[in-house]
Amino acid sequence: MIALIYLLMQEPTSVRAVAVEEVAFHPQSEVAGEVIAHWDSALGAEVSAVIESVLVDVADQVKAGTPLLRMDARVFELGVLQARAALQEAEAKRTLAQLQLDRAEKLIADAIISDDDYAQRRAELASTQAVVDMRRAQLQNAQLQLDKCEIKAPFDGFITQRWAQKGQWVQIGQPLFQIVDPHAAQVSVRLSESQRTSFITGTHHQFSCNGSAFSLSVDKVLPVFNAETRTAEARLKFVQKPAQPGQTGTVTWQSSELMVPAALLVSRGDHLGLMVVDGDKARFVPLKGAVEGRPAAVELALNTLIIDEGRLGLRDGDPIRLK
Question: What is d(CA 198, CA 163) in angstroms, rounded to the nearest whole number?
Fold first, then answer.
């Protein structure tokens, strides 16, 4: 009864208030980023041979399928001829075995040859067919080795390195060219555990480098962290024109969380929160996870009025009057 009388007699406190939408903000985060080419390949020799001609050089732009280098293919051409001749020989033997089997079928019908002789003819045909299949595979392999004497561009791009020299003997696996596709560039960043969620749910991702800014969209984020660096790699795509591979800069994004300045927080009991306008009374709204001196996340309607001036002496339920 006494408390009710006190409330009725209490003069409303004159306060000023601001709407959440006027003071709240989405915090911006940033991390170092590097532009990498989606396609960046070192092309190596697939056969051992002497380089006969080098057709491109560093900085040349090439299309997919463009010949880059030719090797001395004479040995491999002979290999194809030998394989083709061996196949023709095997096919001739198969033809003979087929004729002998056809003759044997007529003879066994007249009981002129035995079942064993007939079975032998069938086995001979199967054997010659197997040899034909083997020789055909050998011819295909020989042709494949011959084709490898010409190195072609696997995709559209630029030659960034050339190690090949005319007249040079190269071994299988020896690098010859580096080719990069700058039009399929991406940005690579490494995120800490505390940044990962904000990065995924955030908006307005942007890469800044040498005074230029490029809009990005998140492509993928690895679900595992590196054991040594405790970071996870993420890749972003350029929305429009990409930056050049090899460039480094800063990737920024806006958090999806809505934050209010630390200056508006008040402490009531064991909680930090905000004093807001609730009709003609003040209402204390505790904020989960709020830390003194730091901006705090809020989940209030944008038109909610936060008491700014006059909040320090207010208690939950105190009558107020807006200035």
Answer: 44
Q: Is 5 exposed, middle or buried (0-12, 13-18, 19+ CB in 10 A)?
A: exposed
30 vs 22: CA distance, rounded Å: 24
d(CA 139, CA 214): 52
How buried is 280 (Cβ within 10 angstroms: 0-12 exposed, 13-18 middle, 19+ buried)?
A: exposed
Q: What local confidence, expressed as pLDDT, does residue 183 receive?
A: 85
Domains, the chain, in order of start with CATH, read: 2-27+258-322 (2.40.420), 28-39+183-254 (2.40.30.170), 40-70+150-179 (2.40.50.100), 74-147 (1.10.287.470)
* pLDDT at residue 105 in the model: 87
Q: Three-state DSSP class for 184?
A: strand
- Of 138, 145, 146, nearest to 86 by C-alpha is 138
Separation CA 81–CA 64 (nearest Å): 29
How far is it, in rounded angstroms, from Cα 201 to Cα 125?
69
How many residues are recorded in the chain? Answer: 323
Task: Give the residue among 158, 99, 162, 155 at the shortest CA–CA distance from 128.
Answer: 99
pLDDT at 44: 97
As given in the structure block, the two tokens for residue 134 are: 């083997």
Q: What pLDDT digit, counting tens, does each position of 150-192 carry?
A: 999 999 999 999 999 999 999 999 999 999 998 889 999 999 9
Q: Which uninterrupted H or E stretch holds 300?
A: none
Total-model pTM: 0.67
Packing angle, helices 115-147 and 74-109, rounded to 10:
160
